[in-house]
Amino acid sequence: MDQTTRPERPAGPLTLAIDVGGTRLKAGILATTGHMTAGPRRIDTPHPATPEAVVDGLIGLVGSLGPFERISIGFPGVVRDGLVLTAPNLGTTAWHGFPLAATLAKKLGAPARLANDATVQGLGVISGHGVECVITLGTGMGFALFENARPAPHLELSQHPARGRKTYDQYIGNAALRTVGRKAWNKRVRKAIDNILILTSCDVLYIGGGNAKNLQLELPATVRIVSNEAGITGGLRLWDALPDTLFESVSA
């Protein structure tokens, strides 16, 4: 091919997929085939992680990725109707009621959809058959449950007691891994897995997130470790694989 010839633009709308994490912000551009045409790019999550600081970080992050027609956002907390209700791992109460979808839609000039980050990750890995559960191991623990590809109403299991007075975030989050060490942390994760399998009676449990790479234990046959990049690639299915009534689009 002549060096001056540019590759053809993929057919169909391009999706800017954003993954907000307590440790890092990530973004990439996805074609309708699921191929990532630009990115993923990452930056550290600003601290303090106020809405304004995170939005500014995201604007800078996606500035050089190229054109897109729509936006998907995975956020680590409870979200409804484009609004953030909780943000337990971003360390600020200023997120409550923040219109993240509308804010990014306006600033980036494209319609946006917002969902819990574990839900978005799950959309990138589930088979779509039966009851499937997803947990993410990162700053805290994300959780999502699906039945025949349809997300259940989000449960913030990360804030539920896992052992004693410790929540799942405190029991197997990143701070716990640093404090107790990898061996003890793996034992904790195994206990958490057993609890979640009993709680959900799921057919398959998927484990993603940045700390999944630290797992060193024998897993039940119904448990699978998946790529952390699903937090971005699942953004495509947030638009293409679900009814519009599940995740309302917020226009620019």
Overall description:
The protein is α/β, with parallel strands linked by helices. It folds into 2 domains: 15-119 and 230-240, ATPase, nucleotide binding domain (Nucleotidyltransferase, domain 5); 129-225, 2-Layer Sandwich (Nucleotidyltransferase, domain 5), CATH 3.30.420.40. The chain has helices spanning 51-62, 100-108, 117-123, 168-172, 174-180, 182-200, 230-240; strands at residues 15-20, 24-30, 36-44, 70-75, 79-80, 83-84, 112-116, 131-137, 141-147, 150-151, 161-163, 166-167, 204-208, 223-225. The strands form 4 sheets. The chain has a 5-stranded mixed beta sheet, sandwiched between helices. The N and C termini lie far apart (38 Å).
Task: Please supply descriptive tags for the structure shown above.
5-stranded mixed sheet, Nucleotidyltransferase, domain 5, 252 residues, alpha/beta, 14 strands, 7 helices
Mean residue pLDDT: 91
Backbone CA Rg: 18 Å
The parts where pLDDT drops under 50 for at least 5 residues are none
Question: Which class best fits the helix and strand makeup?
Answer: alpha/beta
Do you know the CATH architecture of the largest domain?
Answer: 2-Layer Sandwich
From the 3D structure, determine the CATH topology of the largest domain: Nucleotidyltransferase, domain 5
Q: How are strands sequenced across the largest beta sheet?
A: 3-2-1-4-7
* Distance between the first and last residues' Cα: 38 Å
Kindly provide the name of the CATH class of the largest domain.
Answer: Alpha Beta
Classified in CATH, the superfamily of the largest domain is ATPase, nucleotide binding domain
What share of the residues does DSSP label as strand, in percent?
A: 25-35%
